[in-house]
Amino acid sequence: MAVDVGDVAPDFTLETSSRTRNTSLRLSSLRGQKVVLFFYPADHSPGCTTQVCSFRDAYDELVGHGVAVVGISGQTIASHERFAGSHALPFPIASDPGNRVRREYGASKWILPWRVTYLIDEDGVVVDVYSGMVRPLMHVERVKEWIAGAVG
Hints:
Layout: E1 13-16, E2 24-26, E3 34-39, H1 46-64, E4 67-73, H2 77-87, E5 93-95, H3 100-105, E6 108-109, E7 112-113, E8 116-120, E9 126-131, H4 137-147
Parallel strand pairs: 3-4, 4-5
Antiparallel strand pairs: 1-2, 1-5, 3-8, 6-7, 8-9
């Protein structure tokens, strides 16, 4: 069952890269602020690097609008630390071993990990779901539309 607009975002706790000064992240700890939760298939792949770096490049703008950014993929913490370090990522990248959280959210297409972004309001309710495998830059553009009031 996929998480959809109007659903309360399922809570989870996942280990994150140490570069973000956290060792784990619980989604419910971000209640009270808007959250961009994005799933991406793999560290260091061209499309995923483009997607993740677009969130990095927009990070100050997003934080300035009270938005927390969290990325999730199934790679190990060691892989996330190398990825975060090589691209100076200022937000947590969570490790979802076995893709348990990804499956709970329905962020897979067939059996493959999928590129999906969830926009979550201050109450933990999903206000938009954007899925687009071939256009990684559009994920951050969708978030910018949200903070401008055009989405959700």
